[in-house]
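Run: sequence + 6-O-phosphono-beta-D-fructofuranose -> complex structure.
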Amino acid sequence: MTALTSSPAWQNLENLATKIKTQHMRDWFAADPQRAENFTQAACGIELDFSKNIITDEVMQALQTLATECQVSEKSQAMFAGEIINHSEKRAVLHTALRNFSGKPVLVDGEDVMPEVLACQQKIQDFVSSVHSGQRKGYTGKPLKQIIAIGIGGSFLGPKIMSEALKPYGFEGVKVHYVANVDGCHIQDVLASVDHQETLVVMSSKSFTTQETLQNTLTAKAWFLAAGGTQHDIAKHFIAVSSNIKAATEFGMAENNIFPLWDWVGGRYSLWSAIGLPIALTIGYDNYRELLQGAFEMDEHFQNAPIEQNLPMILALLGVWYVNFFGAQSHVLLPYYHYLRGLPAYVQQLDMESNGKRIAGSNTQVDYATGPIIWGSEGTNGQHSFHQLIHQGTVLVPADFMLPLKVPNQDDKHHAMLASNCFGQTQALMQGKTFEECKADLASKGLDNATLESLATHKTMPGNKPSNTLLFNQVDPKTLGALVAMYEHKVFVQGSIWGVNSFDQWGVELGKELGNQVLDKLFNTEANLNFDASTNQLISKFRRANE
Ligand code: F6P
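>> structure
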Protein backbone atom coordinates (compact mmCIF):
# COMPACT_ATOMS: atom_id res chain seq x y z
CA MET A 1 0.00 0.00 0.00
CA THR A 2 1.19 3.52 -0.74
CA ALA A 3 1.47 6.15 1.97
CA LEU A 4 -1.77 7.71 0.72
CA THR A 5 -3.97 4.62 0.85
CA SER A 6 -2.55 3.55 4.20
CA SER A 7 -2.97 7.00 5.78
CA PRO A 8 -5.45 7.35 8.65
CA ALA A 9 -7.46 9.95 6.68
CA TRP A 10 -7.86 7.58 3.74
CA GLN A 11 -8.75 4.64 5.98
CA ASN A 12 -11.33 6.74 7.76
CA LEU A 13 -12.90 7.73 4.43
CA GLU A 14 -13.07 4.09 3.39
CA ASN A 15 -15.00 3.26 6.56
CA LEU A 16 -17.32 6.21 6.09
CA ALA A 17 -18.00 5.22 2.48
CA THR A 18 -18.96 1.69 3.52
CA LYS A 19 -21.41 3.07 6.09
CA ILE A 20 -22.90 5.75 3.89
CA LYS A 21 -23.68 3.45 0.97
CA THR A 22 -26.70 2.15 2.84
CA GLN A 23 -28.20 5.64 3.15
CA HIS A 24 -30.14 7.86 0.74
CA MET A 25 -29.89 11.60 0.14
CA ARG A 26 -33.67 11.80 -0.04
CA ASP A 27 -33.89 10.93 3.64
CA TRP A 28 -31.29 13.51 4.58
CA PHE A 29 -33.25 16.23 2.80
CA ALA A 30 -36.44 15.11 4.54
CA ALA A 31 -34.76 15.15 7.94
CA ASP A 32 -32.85 18.41 7.64
CA PRO A 33 -34.51 21.53 6.21
CA GLN A 34 -31.16 23.36 6.51
CA ARG A 35 -29.28 20.89 4.31
CA ALA A 36 -29.31 23.04 1.15
CA GLU A 37 -28.22 26.13 3.04
CA ASN A 38 -25.53 24.27 4.97
CA PHE A 39 -24.01 22.82 1.83
CA THR A 40 -23.97 26.00 -0.27
CA GLN A 41 -20.99 28.31 -0.65
CA ALA A 42 -20.45 31.35 -2.84
CA ALA A 43 -17.47 33.33 -4.09
CA CYS A 44 -16.46 35.47 -7.08
CA GLY A 45 -19.93 35.51 -8.63
CA ILE A 46 -20.35 31.72 -8.38
CA GLU A 47 -22.76 30.01 -6.02
CA LEU A 48 -22.15 26.32 -5.46
CA ASP A 49 -24.98 24.20 -4.09
CA PHE A 50 -23.39 20.86 -3.24
CA SER A 51 -26.19 19.60 -1.02
CA LYS A 52 -27.22 16.95 -3.55
CA ASN A 53 -24.12 14.89 -2.85
CA ILE A 54 -23.69 11.68 -0.88
CA ILE A 55 -22.16 13.55 2.02
CA THR A 56 -22.66 14.38 5.65
CA ASP A 57 -20.78 16.90 7.80
CA GLU A 58 -18.63 14.02 8.99
CA VAL A 59 -17.67 13.09 5.42
CA MET A 60 -16.79 16.68 4.55
CA GLN A 61 -14.63 16.97 7.64
CA ALA A 62 -12.88 13.71 6.83
CA LEU A 63 -12.19 14.90 3.28
CA GLN A 64 -10.81 18.16 4.64
CA THR A 65 -8.51 16.18 6.92
CA LEU A 66 -7.25 14.30 3.87
CA ALA A 67 -6.47 17.62 2.15
CA THR A 68 -4.61 18.80 5.23
CA GLU A 69 -2.63 15.53 5.52
CA CYS A 70 -1.73 15.78 1.84
CA GLN A 71 -0.45 19.33 2.44
CA VAL A 72 -2.58 20.82 -0.31
CA SER A 73 -2.27 24.29 1.08
CA GLU A 74 1.55 24.07 1.37
CA LYS A 75 1.72 22.75 -2.21
CA SER A 76 -0.44 25.61 -3.42
CA GLN A 77 1.79 28.15 -1.67
CA ALA A 78 4.76 26.58 -3.47
CA MET A 79 2.99 26.97 -6.82
CA PHE A 80 2.07 30.63 -6.28
CA ALA A 81 5.61 31.33 -5.03
CA GLY A 82 7.17 30.11 -8.29
CA GLU A 83 8.87 26.99 -6.89
CA ILE A 84 9.79 24.24 -9.36
CA ILE A 85 6.74 22.04 -8.83
CA ASN A 86 6.72 20.56 -12.35
CA HIS A 87 9.62 18.25 -11.48
CA SER A 88 9.77 16.13 -14.63
CA GLU A 89 10.26 19.27 -16.76
CA LYS A 90 12.04 21.23 -14.02
CA ARG A 91 9.70 24.18 -14.35
CA ALA A 92 7.77 26.56 -12.16
CA VAL A 93 4.00 26.69 -12.71
CA LEU A 94 2.91 30.29 -12.81
CA HIS A 95 -0.15 30.87 -14.95
CA THR A 96 -1.36 32.74 -11.86
CA ALA A 97 1.34 35.41 -12.46
CA LEU A 98 -0.41 36.25 -15.74
CA ARG A 99 -3.45 37.50 -13.81
CA ASN A 100 -1.64 38.82 -10.78
CA PHE A 101 -3.19 42.20 -10.02
CA SER A 102 -1.82 42.33 -6.48
CA GLY A 103 1.04 44.61 -7.46
CA LYS A 104 3.39 42.15 -5.72
CA PRO A 105 6.40 40.63 -7.51
CA VAL A 106 6.46 36.98 -8.58
CA LEU A 107 9.91 35.47 -8.53
CA VAL A 108 11.27 32.74 -10.79
CA ASP A 109 14.91 31.90 -10.06
CA GLY A 110 15.07 35.05 -7.99
CA GLU A 111 13.86 37.29 -10.80
CA ASP A 112 10.54 39.13 -10.86
CA VAL A 113 8.57 38.05 -13.93
CA MET A 114 5.90 40.74 -13.55
CA PRO A 115 7.60 43.47 -15.64
CA GLU A 116 7.70 41.10 -18.64
CA VAL A 117 4.10 40.00 -18.04
CA LEU A 118 2.88 43.59 -17.85
CA ALA A 119 4.85 44.57 -20.96
CA CYS A 120 3.21 41.73 -22.86
CA GLN A 121 -0.24 42.80 -21.64
CA GLN A 122 0.51 46.33 -22.86
CA LYS A 123 1.55 44.93 -26.24
CA ILE A 124 -1.75 43.00 -26.44
CA GLN A 125 -3.72 46.10 -25.52
CA ASP A 126 -1.97 48.25 -28.14
CA PHE A 127 -2.35 45.61 -30.79
CA VAL A 128 -6.06 45.07 -30.14
CA SER A 129 -6.73 48.78 -30.18
CA SER A 130 -4.83 49.20 -33.47
CA VAL A 131 -6.93 46.44 -35.07
CA HIS A 132 -10.26 47.59 -33.65
CA SER A 133 -9.68 51.22 -34.54
CA GLY A 134 -8.79 50.23 -38.10
CA GLN A 135 -5.40 51.89 -37.68
CA ARG A 136 -3.62 48.62 -38.38
CA LYS A 137 -4.29 47.77 -42.01
CA GLY A 138 -3.54 45.02 -44.46
CA TYR A 139 -1.12 45.47 -47.37
CA THR A 140 -3.76 47.03 -49.65
CA GLY A 141 -4.87 49.50 -46.97
CA LYS A 142 -8.00 47.62 -45.92
CA PRO A 143 -8.71 47.27 -42.15
CA LEU A 144 -8.23 43.78 -40.70
CA LYS A 145 -11.69 42.38 -40.12
CA GLN A 146 -11.14 38.63 -40.36
CA ILE A 147 -8.89 36.93 -37.84
CA ILE A 148 -7.81 33.32 -38.35
CA ALA A 149 -6.52 31.95 -35.05
CA ILE A 150 -4.44 28.81 -35.62
CA GLY A 151 -3.39 26.61 -32.71
CA ILE A 152 -4.30 23.32 -31.05
CA GLY A 153 -4.85 21.94 -27.53
CA GLY A 154 -4.35 24.71 -25.00
CA SER A 155 -3.39 27.09 -27.79
CA PHE A 156 -6.88 26.68 -29.21
CA LEU A 157 -9.46 25.50 -26.69
CA GLY A 158 -9.07 28.38 -24.24
CA PRO A 159 -9.31 31.18 -26.80
CA LYS A 160 -12.09 29.52 -28.79
CA ILE A 161 -14.26 28.53 -25.86
CA MET A 162 -13.87 31.78 -23.93
CA SER A 163 -14.68 33.80 -27.07
CA GLU A 164 -17.75 31.64 -27.65
CA ALA A 165 -18.85 32.01 -24.01
CA LEU A 166 -18.54 35.80 -24.20
CA LYS A 167 -20.37 36.24 -27.50
CA PRO A 168 -22.71 38.87 -26.04
CA TYR A 169 -19.58 40.97 -25.34
CA GLY A 170 -18.21 40.59 -28.88
CA PHE A 171 -16.69 43.53 -30.73
CA GLU A 172 -18.79 44.11 -33.85
CA GLY A 173 -16.08 44.93 -36.38
CA VAL A 174 -14.05 41.69 -36.42
CA LYS A 175 -14.79 38.02 -36.85
CA VAL A 176 -12.46 35.42 -35.39
CA HIS A 177 -12.24 31.95 -36.99
CA TYR A 178 -10.49 29.20 -35.04
CA VAL A 179 -8.63 26.37 -36.77
CA ALA A 180 -6.96 23.51 -34.90
CA ASN A 181 -7.16 20.23 -36.75
CA VAL A 182 -4.60 19.38 -39.42
CA ASP A 183 -7.48 17.93 -41.46
CA GLY A 184 -7.21 20.25 -44.48
CA CYS A 185 -11.00 20.51 -44.81
CA HIS A 186 -11.14 22.96 -41.95
CA ILE A 187 -8.47 25.46 -42.97
CA GLN A 188 -9.62 25.32 -46.60
CA ASP A 189 -13.21 26.11 -45.59
CA VAL A 190 -12.10 29.08 -43.51
CA LEU A 191 -9.72 30.42 -46.17
CA ALA A 192 -12.47 30.17 -48.76
CA SER A 193 -14.71 32.36 -46.61
CA VAL A 194 -12.39 35.36 -46.18
CA ASP A 195 -10.70 38.06 -48.23
CA HIS A 196 -6.92 37.81 -47.83
CA GLN A 197 -6.56 41.60 -47.93
CA GLU A 198 -8.46 42.00 -44.67
CA THR A 199 -7.26 38.83 -42.93
CA LEU A 200 -4.92 38.58 -39.98
CA VAL A 201 -3.49 35.15 -39.10
CA VAL A 202 -2.61 34.62 -35.44
CA MET A 203 -0.48 31.52 -35.09
CA SER A 204 -0.40 30.29 -31.49
CA SER A 205 2.06 27.61 -30.50
CA LYS A 206 3.95 27.66 -27.25
CA SER A 207 6.55 25.20 -28.50
CA PHE A 208 6.41 26.24 -32.15
CA THR A 209 6.93 22.58 -33.06
CA THR A 210 3.34 21.35 -33.22
CA GLN A 211 2.80 19.72 -36.60
CA GLU A 212 -0.86 20.71 -37.00
CA THR A 213 -0.28 24.39 -36.25
CA LEU A 214 2.83 24.67 -38.43
CA GLN A 215 1.11 23.03 -41.38
CA ASN A 216 -2.10 25.07 -41.12
CA THR A 217 -0.04 28.26 -40.99
CA LEU A 218 2.03 27.21 -44.03
CA THR A 219 -1.22 26.53 -45.90
CA ALA A 220 -2.56 29.96 -44.93
CA LYS A 221 0.71 31.55 -46.02
CA ALA A 222 0.62 29.78 -49.41
CA TRP A 223 -3.00 30.92 -49.85
CA PHE A 224 -2.04 34.50 -49.01
CA LEU A 225 0.82 34.52 -51.51
CA ALA A 226 -1.30 32.88 -54.21
CA ALA A 227 -4.02 35.46 -53.68
CA GLY A 228 -1.66 38.34 -54.46
CA GLY A 229 0.22 39.15 -51.25
CA THR A 230 4.02 39.18 -51.40
CA GLN A 231 6.61 37.87 -48.98
CA HIS A 232 7.11 41.44 -47.81
CA ASP A 233 3.37 41.80 -47.02
CA ILE A 234 3.39 38.78 -44.73
CA ALA A 235 4.45 40.91 -41.75
CA LYS A 236 1.19 42.85 -42.00
CA HIS A 237 -0.96 39.71 -42.00
CA PHE A 238 0.80 37.09 -39.90
CA ILE A 239 1.65 37.26 -36.21
CA ALA A 240 2.69 34.56 -33.73
CA VAL A 241 2.39 33.79 -30.03
CA SER A 242 5.17 31.55 -28.81
CA SER A 243 7.79 30.91 -26.16
CA ASN A 244 10.12 29.72 -28.93
CA ILE A 245 11.04 33.09 -30.47
CA LYS A 246 13.97 31.56 -32.37
CA ALA A 247 11.80 29.01 -34.18
CA ALA A 248 9.13 31.62 -34.86
CA THR A 249 11.60 34.02 -36.51
CA GLU A 250 13.18 31.14 -38.47
CA PHE A 251 9.68 30.33 -39.69
CA GLY A 252 9.47 33.85 -41.11
CA MET A 253 7.60 35.77 -38.41
CA ALA A 254 8.83 39.36 -37.95
CA GLU A 255 10.30 39.63 -34.44
CA ASN A 256 8.03 42.51 -33.38
CA ASN A 257 5.06 40.42 -34.55
CA ILE A 258 5.80 37.73 -31.95
CA PHE A 259 4.00 37.83 -28.61
CA PRO A 260 5.98 35.98 -25.94
CA LEU A 261 5.03 33.45 -23.33
CA TRP A 262 7.21 31.57 -20.94
CA ASP A 263 8.05 27.97 -20.11
CA TRP A 264 6.41 28.41 -16.69
CA VAL A 265 3.02 28.65 -18.44
CA GLY A 266 1.62 25.20 -19.25
CA GLY A 267 -0.20 24.80 -22.59
CA ARG A 268 -3.55 24.03 -20.96
CA TYR A 269 -3.11 26.99 -18.59
CA SER A 270 -2.07 29.46 -21.27
CA LEU A 271 -5.24 31.34 -22.11
CA TRP A 272 -4.19 34.01 -19.59
CA SER A 273 -1.03 34.72 -21.60
CA ALA A 274 -0.79 36.20 -25.11
CA ILE A 275 -2.36 32.90 -26.26
CA GLY A 276 -5.53 34.75 -25.19
CA LEU A 277 -4.92 37.46 -27.82
CA PRO A 278 -7.79 36.20 -30.04
CA ILE A 279 -10.10 36.55 -27.02
CA ALA A 280 -9.05 40.18 -26.63
CA LEU A 281 -9.60 40.67 -30.36
CA THR A 282 -13.09 39.17 -29.99
CA ILE A 283 -14.30 41.04 -26.90
CA GLY A 284 -11.98 44.05 -26.63
CA TYR A 285 -9.14 44.59 -24.20
CA ASP A 286 -11.24 45.93 -21.30
CA ASN A 287 -13.44 42.85 -21.26
CA TYR A 288 -10.38 40.62 -21.64
CA ARG A 289 -8.85 42.30 -18.59
CA GLU A 290 -12.04 41.60 -16.66
CA LEU A 291 -11.60 37.91 -17.53
CA LEU A 292 -8.12 38.02 -15.97
CA GLN A 293 -9.46 39.98 -13.00
CA GLY A 294 -12.07 37.28 -12.32
CA ALA A 295 -9.34 34.62 -12.38
CA PHE A 296 -7.21 36.72 -10.02
CA GLU A 297 -10.10 37.01 -7.57
CA MET A 298 -10.55 33.24 -7.66
CA ASP A 299 -6.80 32.86 -6.99
CA GLU A 300 -7.22 35.04 -3.91
CA HIS A 301 -10.26 33.07 -2.79
CA PHE A 302 -8.44 29.77 -3.30
CA GLN A 303 -5.44 30.92 -1.28
CA ASN A 304 -7.32 32.59 1.55
CA ALA A 305 -10.75 31.04 2.09
CA PRO A 306 -10.95 28.29 4.74
CA ILE A 307 -11.22 24.80 3.28
CA GLU A 308 -14.90 24.41 4.14
CA GLN A 309 -15.78 27.59 2.19
CA ASN A 310 -13.27 27.16 -0.58
CA LEU A 311 -14.99 26.39 -3.90
CA PRO A 312 -12.07 24.66 -5.69
CA MET A 313 -11.34 22.64 -2.53
CA ILE A 314 -14.96 21.54 -2.12
CA LEU A 315 -15.26 20.47 -5.76
CA ALA A 316 -11.94 18.66 -5.66
CA LEU A 317 -12.70 16.81 -2.44
CA LEU A 318 -16.11 15.71 -3.69
CA GLY A 319 -14.39 14.44 -6.82
CA VAL A 320 -11.87 12.45 -4.77
CA TRP A 321 -14.73 11.05 -2.69
CA TYR A 322 -16.46 9.60 -5.76
CA VAL A 323 -13.36 8.54 -7.72
CA ASN A 324 -11.58 6.83 -4.85
CA PHE A 325 -14.36 5.65 -2.56
CA PHE A 326 -17.28 5.01 -4.95
CA GLY A 327 -15.34 3.89 -8.04
CA ALA A 328 -16.65 6.71 -10.26
CA GLN A 329 -14.67 6.75 -13.50
CA SER A 330 -16.11 9.84 -15.07
CA HIS A 331 -17.46 13.26 -14.26
CA VAL A 332 -19.96 15.10 -16.42
CA LEU A 333 -20.18 18.88 -16.96
CA LEU A 334 -23.58 20.21 -17.98
CA PRO A 335 -23.70 23.92 -18.74
CA TYR A 336 -27.29 25.08 -19.19
CA TYR A 337 -26.25 28.01 -21.35
CA HIS A 338 -25.63 27.71 -25.05
CA TYR A 339 -22.63 30.05 -25.09
CA LEU A 340 -20.93 27.96 -22.43
CA ARG A 341 -21.35 24.80 -24.49
CA GLY A 342 -17.60 24.42 -25.01
CA LEU A 343 -16.71 24.37 -21.32
CA PRO A 344 -16.80 20.54 -21.00
CA ALA A 345 -14.18 20.27 -23.78
CA TYR A 346 -12.05 22.94 -22.09
CA VAL A 347 -12.15 21.26 -18.69
CA GLN A 348 -11.61 17.91 -20.40
CA GLN A 349 -8.13 18.95 -21.57
CA LEU A 350 -7.42 20.81 -18.34
CA ASP A 351 -8.31 17.88 -16.13
CA MET A 352 -7.41 14.83 -18.21
CA GLU A 353 -4.07 16.14 -19.48
CA SER A 354 -3.21 17.26 -15.95
CA ASN A 355 -4.33 14.35 -13.80
CA GLY A 356 -4.39 11.46 -16.28
CA LYS A 357 -1.24 10.12 -14.56
CA ARG A 358 -0.14 6.97 -12.78
CA ILE A 359 3.17 7.91 -11.17
CA ALA A 360 3.14 9.69 -7.84
CA GLY A 361 5.78 11.94 -6.28
CA SER A 362 8.45 9.46 -5.31
CA ASN A 363 8.39 7.65 -8.70
CA THR A 364 5.98 5.04 -7.45
CA GLN A 365 3.04 3.64 -9.32
CA VAL A 366 -0.23 4.62 -7.68
CA ASP A 367 -2.50 1.99 -6.11
CA TYR A 368 -5.59 4.20 -6.36
CA ALA A 369 -7.54 5.80 -9.17
CA THR A 370 -6.51 9.28 -10.36
CA GLY A 371 -8.14 11.66 -12.85
CA PRO A 372 -11.58 10.65 -14.13
CA ILE A 373 -12.90 10.94 -17.68
CA ILE A 374 -14.36 14.41 -18.11
CA TRP A 375 -17.18 14.80 -20.57
CA GLY A 376 -20.44 16.61 -21.12
CA SER A 377 -22.38 18.98 -23.29
CA GLU A 378 -24.93 21.74 -23.10
CA GLY A 379 -28.24 21.25 -21.37
CA THR A 380 -31.00 20.52 -22.20
CA ASN A 381 -29.75 18.51 -25.20
CA GLY A 382 -28.15 15.77 -23.11
CA GLN A 383 -31.45 15.14 -21.32
CA HIS A 384 -32.75 13.65 -24.54
CA SER A 385 -29.82 11.31 -24.95
CA PHE A 386 -27.13 10.37 -22.43
CA HIS A 387 -28.87 11.44 -19.21
CA GLN A 388 -30.65 8.08 -19.35
CA LEU A 389 -27.45 6.32 -18.28
CA ILE A 390 -26.82 8.81 -15.49
CA HIS A 391 -30.33 8.22 -14.12
CA GLN A 392 -30.64 4.46 -14.45
CA GLY A 393 -27.35 3.00 -15.67
CA THR A 394 -25.00 0.91 -13.55
CA VAL A 395 -22.13 3.40 -13.31
CA LEU A 396 -21.96 6.42 -11.04
CA VAL A 397 -21.47 9.70 -12.89
CA PRO A 398 -21.18 12.75 -10.61
CA ALA A 399 -22.35 15.89 -12.40
CA ASP A 400 -21.75 19.64 -12.36
CA PHE A 401 -24.85 21.50 -13.53
CA MET A 402 -24.33 25.19 -14.41
CA LEU A 403 -26.79 27.95 -15.04
CA PRO A 404 -26.63 31.73 -15.35
CA LEU A 405 -29.59 33.27 -13.51
CA LYS A 406 -29.76 36.05 -16.09
CA VAL A 407 -28.94 36.00 -19.76
CA PRO A 408 -28.57 39.08 -21.92
CA ASN A 409 -31.14 39.66 -24.66
CA GLN A 410 -33.12 36.51 -24.16
CA ASP A 411 -36.76 35.61 -24.16
CA ASP A 412 -37.80 34.98 -20.53
CA LYS A 413 -39.83 31.93 -21.44
CA HIS A 414 -36.85 30.14 -22.95
CA HIS A 415 -34.69 30.96 -19.97
CA ALA A 416 -37.29 29.79 -17.45
CA MET A 417 -37.63 26.52 -19.38
CA LEU A 418 -33.88 26.09 -19.39
CA ALA A 419 -33.70 26.71 -15.65
CA SER A 420 -36.61 24.39 -14.91
CA ASN A 421 -34.91 21.57 -16.75
CA CYS A 422 -31.61 22.17 -15.00
CA PHE A 423 -33.18 22.16 -11.54
CA GLY A 424 -35.55 19.30 -12.42
CA GLN A 425 -32.67 17.09 -13.50
CA THR A 426 -30.72 17.56 -10.28
CA GLN A 427 -33.90 16.84 -8.35
CA ALA A 428 -34.62 13.65 -10.32
CA LEU A 429 -31.05 12.44 -9.92
CA MET A 430 -31.17 13.01 -6.20
CA GLN A 431 -34.59 11.65 -5.28
CA GLY A 432 -35.14 9.08 -8.02
CA LYS A 433 -38.49 7.32 -8.07
CA THR A 434 -39.25 4.28 -5.95
CA PHE A 435 -40.97 1.11 -7.09
CA GLU A 436 -43.95 1.99 -4.90
CA GLU A 437 -44.20 5.49 -6.39
CA CYS A 438 -44.09 4.03 -9.89
CA LYS A 439 -46.78 1.51 -9.00
CA ALA A 440 -49.00 4.24 -7.56
CA ASP A 441 -48.61 6.27 -10.78
CA LEU A 442 -49.64 3.30 -12.88
CA ALA A 443 -52.57 2.27 -10.69
CA SER A 444 -55.18 4.22 -12.64
CA LYS A 445 -54.13 2.70 -15.99
CA GLY A 446 -56.21 -0.47 -15.59
CA LEU A 447 -53.20 -2.82 -16.01
CA ASP A 448 -53.17 -6.38 -14.73
CA ASN A 449 -50.96 -6.90 -11.72
CA ALA A 450 -48.10 -8.66 -13.54
CA THR A 451 -47.86 -5.90 -16.20
CA LEU A 452 -48.08 -3.20 -13.56
CA GLU A 453 -45.25 -4.75 -11.50
CA SER A 454 -43.10 -5.30 -14.56
CA LEU A 455 -43.55 -1.74 -15.81
CA ALA A 456 -42.97 -0.30 -12.36
CA THR A 457 -39.70 -2.25 -12.16
CA HIS A 458 -38.46 -0.70 -15.40
CA LYS A 459 -39.53 2.77 -14.35
CA THR A 460 -37.94 2.66 -10.91
CA MET A 461 -35.07 5.14 -10.60
CA PRO A 462 -32.63 4.57 -7.76
CA GLY A 463 -31.81 8.26 -7.23
CA ASN A 464 -28.99 9.12 -4.81
CA LYS A 465 -26.99 10.30 -7.83
CA PRO A 466 -24.67 13.15 -6.90
CA SER A 467 -24.68 16.56 -8.53
CA ASN A 468 -23.39 20.06 -7.88
CA THR A 469 -25.32 23.08 -9.09
CA LEU A 470 -23.28 26.14 -9.99
CA LEU A 471 -25.29 29.33 -10.38
CA PHE A 472 -23.93 32.57 -11.81
CA ASN A 473 -25.65 35.88 -11.81
CA GLN A 474 -24.60 36.02 -15.43
CA VAL A 475 -21.71 34.75 -17.51
CA ASP A 476 -19.81 38.02 -17.83
CA PRO A 477 -16.03 38.12 -18.44
CA LYS A 478 -15.19 38.36 -14.75
CA THR A 479 -17.39 35.45 -13.69
CA LEU A 480 -16.06 33.34 -16.56
CA GLY A 481 -12.48 34.07 -15.49
CA ALA A 482 -13.34 32.99 -11.96
CA LEU A 483 -15.08 29.85 -13.21
CA VAL A 484 -12.12 28.69 -15.28
CA ALA A 485 -9.64 29.46 -12.48
CA MET A 486 -11.90 27.53 -10.10
CA TYR A 487 -11.60 24.40 -12.26
CA GLU A 488 -7.83 24.93 -12.59
CA HIS A 489 -7.48 24.95 -8.81
CA LYS A 490 -9.84 22.00 -8.46
CA VAL A 491 -7.50 20.03 -10.72
CA PHE A 492 -4.51 21.26 -8.72
CA VAL A 493 -6.03 20.12 -5.42
CA GLN A 494 -6.82 16.68 -6.79
CA GLY A 495 -3.35 16.35 -8.30
CA SER A 496 -1.88 17.33 -4.92
CA ILE A 497 -3.91 14.67 -3.11
CA TRP A 498 -3.05 11.99 -5.65
CA GLY A 499 0.59 13.12 -5.62
CA VAL A 500 0.87 13.25 -9.42
CA ASN A 501 2.60 15.93 -11.48
CA SER A 502 -0.38 17.81 -12.95
CA PHE A 503 1.84 19.86 -15.25
CA ASP A 504 3.59 17.51 -17.66
CA GLN A 505 2.02 15.44 -20.49
CA TRP A 506 4.43 12.73 -21.61
CA GLY A 507 1.63 10.57 -23.00
CA VAL A 508 0.58 13.13 -25.60
CA GLU A 509 4.22 13.90 -26.37
CA LEU A 510 4.75 10.27 -27.40
CA GLY A 511 1.75 10.55 -29.76
CA LYS A 512 3.34 13.61 -31.40
CA GLU A 513 6.68 11.80 -31.82
CA LEU A 514 5.23 8.63 -33.36
CA GLY A 515 2.92 10.64 -35.63
CA ASN A 516 5.96 12.39 -37.08
CA GLN A 517 7.80 9.08 -37.61
CA VAL A 518 4.81 7.68 -39.48
CA LEU A 519 4.50 10.87 -41.54
CA ASP A 520 8.06 10.33 -42.81
CA LYS A 521 7.01 6.94 -44.13
CA LEU A 522 3.90 8.36 -45.78
CA PHE A 523 5.89 11.05 -47.60
CA ASN A 524 8.82 8.80 -48.37
CA THR A 525 6.91 6.03 -50.14
CA GLU A 526 9.99 3.91 -50.87
CA ALA A 527 11.16 3.81 -47.27
CA ASN A 528 11.30 0.45 -45.57
CA LEU A 529 8.47 -0.13 -43.06
CA ASN A 530 9.87 -1.27 -39.74
CA PHE A 531 6.98 -0.72 -37.33
CA ASP A 532 4.67 -3.40 -35.96
CA ALA A 533 2.72 -5.45 -38.53
CA SER A 534 -0.54 -3.60 -38.01
CA THR A 535 0.99 -0.13 -38.42
CA ASN A 536 2.97 -1.32 -41.46
CA GLN A 537 -0.22 -2.66 -43.01
CA LEU A 538 -2.12 0.59 -42.41
CA ILE A 539 0.69 2.65 -43.96
CA SER A 540 0.86 0.32 -46.99
CA LYS A 541 -2.86 0.69 -47.59
CA PHE A 542 -2.61 4.49 -47.38
CA ARG A 543 0.36 4.51 -49.77
CA ARG A 544 -1.49 2.31 -52.29
CA ALA A 545 -4.64 4.48 -52.15
CA ASN A 546 -2.59 7.60 -52.77
CA GLU A 547 -0.22 6.29 -55.48
O1 F6P B 1 -0.40 17.83 -27.56
C1 F6P B 1 -0.25 18.31 -26.29
C2 F6P B 1 0.10 19.74 -26.21
O2 F6P B 1 1.43 19.82 -25.85
C3 F6P B 1 -0.77 20.51 -25.24
O3 F6P B 1 -0.36 20.40 -23.94
C4 F6P B 1 -0.69 21.87 -25.80
O4 F6P B 1 -1.69 22.68 -25.29
C5 F6P B 1 -0.81 21.59 -27.27
O5 F6P B 1 -0.08 20.40 -27.46
C6 F6P B 1 -0.29 22.66 -28.20
O6 F6P B 1 1.07 22.89 -28.02
P1 F6P B 1 1.78 24.15 -28.62
O7 F6P B 1 1.14 25.37 -28.06
O8 F6P B 1 3.21 24.02 -28.21
O9 F6P B 1 1.62 24.11 -30.11
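>> summary
Residues 45-81+290-431+466-504 form a domain with the Rossmann fold fold (CATH 3.40.50.10490). The chain has three domains: 45-81+290-431+466-504, 98-283, 507-545.
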